[in-house]
Amino acid sequence: MTTWHWLYAAAPPYRWRFVARVLFKTALLFVALNLLCVAVNPLPTLGRLSAYNRLFAGRPRLPYGENPAVAYNLSLFQLEAMFAAHEVARPPRGDEFRVVLIGDSSVWGILLRPEETLAGQLNAAGLRTADGRRVRIYNLGYPTMSLTKDLLLLDYARRYQPDLIVWLFTLESFDQRAQLDPALLQHNPEPVRRLIVRYGLAQRTDDPRFVSLSWRDKTLIGRRRALADLLRLQLYGVPWAVTGIDQEYRDDYTPRAVDLPADRTWHGLTEDLFTPADLVFDVLRAGVTLAGDTPILLVNEPMLISRGANSDIRYNSFYPRWAYDAYRQWLHQESERQGWALLDLWDALPDAACYTDSAVHLTPVCAGQLAASLGPEIVRLASSAAGEGERSHGRQ
Amino acid sequence: MSLTHILVFAVLILLTTITLPVRWRQWALFVGSVLAIYWLQPALTIRRLDFLFPTATLALVVAGWLATRAPGQAVTRADRLAALLIAALVLVLSFGRYLVPAYRLTPSAPPPVLPVALGLAGAGVVLLALSRVRDNWLRLALTVGVLALFAVLKTEALGTAASRLLRSWQGQTTQLARADELSWLGFSYVVFRLLHTLRDRQTGQLPALTLREYITYAIFFPAFTAGPIDRAERFLNDLRALPPLDATRFVHGGMRLAVGIGKKFVIADSLALLALNVTNAQQAQSAAGLWVLLYAYAFQLYFDFSGYTDIAIGLGQWCGIRLPENFSQPYLKRNITVFWQSWHITLSQWVRSYVFLPLSRTLLTRPRKPSPTVLALIGQLATMLAIGLWHGVTWGFVVWGLWHGVGLFVHKVYSDRTRPYYLRLRQHPRLGRAVEVAGIALTFHFVVLGWVWFALPDLAISWDVFVRLWRW
Questions:
Q1: Inter-residue contact B90 to B120 (CB < 8 Å)
Q2: Tens digit of pLDDT for each residue in A227-286?
Q3: Does A242 contact B293 at a Cβ distance shorter than 8 Å?
Q4: What number is the ipTM of this complex?
Q5: Domains of chain A (ranges, CATH numbers)
Q6: Which residue of A185, B132, B236, B317 sits 20 to 30 Å from the alpha carbon of A355, by its own alpha carbon?
Q7: Parallel, antiparallel, or unpaired: how do β-strands A134-139 and A296-300 relate?
Q8: Could you say which of B5, B252, B391, B445 is catalytic?
Q9: Containing H/E element for B433?
Q10: Over residues B159-175, mean pLDDT
């Protein structure tokens, strides 16, 4: 058979022996492909083959979406594909000073359009370094609260040569016990384990929450969902590029709570039992170490400071006052000890009107106010980093 | 039809084709088709309706058989056996209410057995009474009844009213009544087959069919949901001489099945993620973007529909039935007339036989004959309007039908006047090829623009999209 003619044209009568041969070869090919898939995981390589930044623009934030048909976006666990779909994967322009924002859903921008997010509004401000380079901000936030998740994304982000890292967080991301809760971490056990070992983090490498794949899960059949997700990510790029929509914008969301329960605990912890060991400052230290020569700005992000019922006990639905106050105290102590650049904006936007469906999700206006607070600090650090770069370049 | 349905059908067809003698295979196709229409029917929000709709399909088809019996055709023992078998199958299916959902063939719990038995007895009495009505009256009543039912199902206002009625009958809130709750699977295609046989009996063209043959033809499970619309006499020839499954037929059927599955479940379902719909049509920010969505819709529709046709033809080949082709590279045709000879071919042929030709004949027999141009205009508009309304009684489908009717008419006038030029073009192959390519591009875009009226449920949105497509 040298042509495909037999597929559609009338052919001389086939014999059952021919059918048996075709079926046998098909089965053999199928088994071979499955075994090959077990031996060599094709997902990272396939993930890098992206239509984004080629056929259509890269996404301004990492893929995430629970309702793909409406959001033109979906959650998947392929880090290679996630980054390849992001505009950060585009080669930097000549005069570009690359700043990456790492953080949770407030950075990613739940209920905000791409241009309304912190990154979007910082870009709209047209910041420039002292030597005239254009500051370009990339939103690498991801909607789950875990510093270990941030560390993983930071590890990947370094491939895209950032000139400055801005890491926004809140106490919720420090919870020791919840670090490995995000599905993104559980489905990427190897890179997370490498980070745990490399930086001696307090997490266990054999944590049962890590998803371990059986050999059957590693076959082509076992990986069909992951493969379909890769394809869907590319396909949703078209409606995303056509509409600019990358999440479900609901008007009927439940607003952040202002009247709070009289609950004095934080994740079951009481004031007398709460110690710095409950918080993952080791992950923060690892992140700064991982950044290496790239300057890093740590930002304690703004949150709602409620004035409703039981606001004498709690700041908001996330935190009792005692827990958050202790966290801030320890954060400042650690920051001073390590010589970190820390910007504590926790009470910069206290009004309930600034928040949408959560005590940390900002409205477009308040995201703009945060951008206005953060912009000068970014320019200052960027200018100093650019100067350092030039000096070190001059020394060479 | 889901992948599970297709896989189960394929396995059962192969098993029965390999193991049963021809006579038994005919009965197997009959029983399989009866059971399949219950299995394929999706769950509906109105209680019992997903059991009642397939049952009503069977009742309609039996009535159709009664009305289309050949003159002097008596009810034979085999016909009685087929009728009893249908009743027995429906009764057995109703016992599914005592099974856990996983073992049920129906999408939800069927009605209790006693009302089903009484209903079957009642239907039997009615059908017996109908068999004594004069054939002409019965055919007329059935034609009117089927068309009325069709109008109810395809018209939003009537559908909502019917839904309200059914909901109140079932003791459900009427506040939630919607026309799209009446999703009667396969009804549109069954209507075509019924009308074809009713009309052909009237003109004496229909051969005599047994009840088993008629039912197998009308609800043949591979073609039940999405066609093609076969002709009874052609189907009958195959059914009466089911060949054994040889390797060639196995290969050809298998290839059509594989290609169909690829078209439908890989290409069409992928394109569905980006195809034009009422939401993204309003969200699109540019004309270029709208064109991309529209192209995606055009190809999604083609691959979806032609994929289902391939699946039906492949399964049919394994059964021993050669279903007719429905598509022949329609987007590569050089004019709109040829497009309609290659898109949903069996529907076009049906409408040509039962709308266009009778209408033209009627107009030509009038004392004041219309001019050929007027005749063509009326014929094309009526034909395409009928095809549009078959999809649903909405202004969007009316405009879509008129769009194509006008297109066909304009092409006819144009081709009549330019025929000498095209004949001369044969002497210039390169120019001829260029004109052909331009014709393909023009026809494709004419069809694609027509989909704007077809795809969107609201005429105002369609118009808005149509205007925005040109706003660069």
A1: yes
A2: 999 999 999 999 999 999 999 998 899 999 999 999 999 999 999 999 999 999 999 999
A3: yes
A4: 0.86
A5: 34-249+266-395 (3.40.50.1110)
A6: A185
A7: unpaired
A8: B391
A9: helix B429-455
A10: 92
